[in-house]
Amino acid sequence: MNFRKQIIQTLLLSLLVSIFVPQTFSFTLSDQKILALKGDRNTQFKLGLFYQKGKNKDHLEAYYWMKMAAIQNHIAACRYVGRAHLYGKGTSVTIELAKKWFLTGANQGDFHSMLDLGYCLELERNWIESAAWYKIAHQFGNTNALKRLNNVLKNITNSEKDEIELLVTQIQTSISEEKKTSTSSIKPELQNSIKRIDLKNGYTYWGQIKNGIPHGYGKKKFEQVTKYQGEFVMGLEHGYGTSFDMNGKISFQGLWEEGSPLSPSSKALEKDFTNY
Predict the structure, then answer these.
(1) Rounded distance between C-alpha atoms, residue 36 and residue 128, angstroms
(2) How far is residue 110 CA from its own chain's centroid?
(3) Among 4, 23, 58, 121, whose Cα sits 20 to 30 Å from the Cα of 253?
(4) Given the DSSP bridges, would you call strands 236-244 and 260-261 parallel, antiparallel or unpaired?
(5) What is the pLDDT of residues 88-130, one digit of tens each?
């Protein structure tokens, strides 16, 4: 009887361990990155969260993966990228880009993005549009929007309040149409466009490509050091991007045109980021 009792206790203990002890992931971090680079937006988002905080915190890498997911209309990733530009986490403080990504999320019905978009417009003292987005955010269930709306309304005359209602109607129509056309699936054209390729002079590239060359969003490395991360057009750094010195510190962050930065490197962020 004692032997049978020990067996039962052992089985029960094994069952409890399987229920309450966290299981290890079947994929390694490297496997997840490969899957993310193949276009899986949910994995891209999870990697962004992984690098957002904790011992592996790296705002730059978090931004990299989040933006890849945001490009595929992942709502939470759009919101993250918007806030990254609003507060300068892993990228520049750029309110225009913040508004762009908040609008992408808001048009898909995300009331958090609606609230953040209203806040950006409030910072710009664009009271009417700000009020319209706060009102819509509240209609979609954001309980914080009403207080923000009331504060903004103090700057709006009674005659201007009719403009708010008209704008709210227009935005609601836009959101309805956008939700109809948006898709939750991975964009087919992105599935095979993200690869690792060798470049000239010992450089490698990891990101989106077109016709076998960097085109879209990615990073260029020399040996194990990231030298540039950002946007490319037909093989050249073009758009918004960040370059690094050999120690991994930011040497320039801003707009690039055909492989060259458009403004002096003195505008680079003073804060150091860990590159990867």
Answers:
(1) 40
(2) 14
(3) 121
(4) unpaired
(5) 998 889 999 999 999 999 999 999 999 999 999 999 999 999 9
Contact of 251 with 266, CB cutoff 8 Å: no
Q: pTM for this one?
A: 0.64
- Please check whether residue 214 is in contact with residue 220, taking contact to mean a CB–CB distance below 8 angstroms: yes
Percentage, residues of the chain above pLDDT 90: 44
Q: How many residues does the chain have?
A: 276
Structure tokens at 113: 């993005």
Q: What are the structure tokens assigned to 146, written together? A: 């009403």
Query: H or E element: which one contains 251?
Result: strand 250-257
Domain range list for the chain: 29-181, 193-267
Rounded-to-integer distance, Cα 22 and Cα 20, Å: 6
Q: What is the DSSP letter of 232?
A: E
User: Which stretches of the chain score pLDDT less than 70?
Assistant: 1-27, 179-194, 263-276
Beta bridge partners of 222: 203, 225
What is the topology classification, in CATH, of domain 29-181? 1.25.40
State how far the alpha carbon of 83 is from the alpha carbons of 17, 54, 92, 119, 120, in Å: 39, 19, 11, 11, 10
- Separation in Å, CA 75 to CA 20, 111, 119, 193: 31, 10, 18, 21
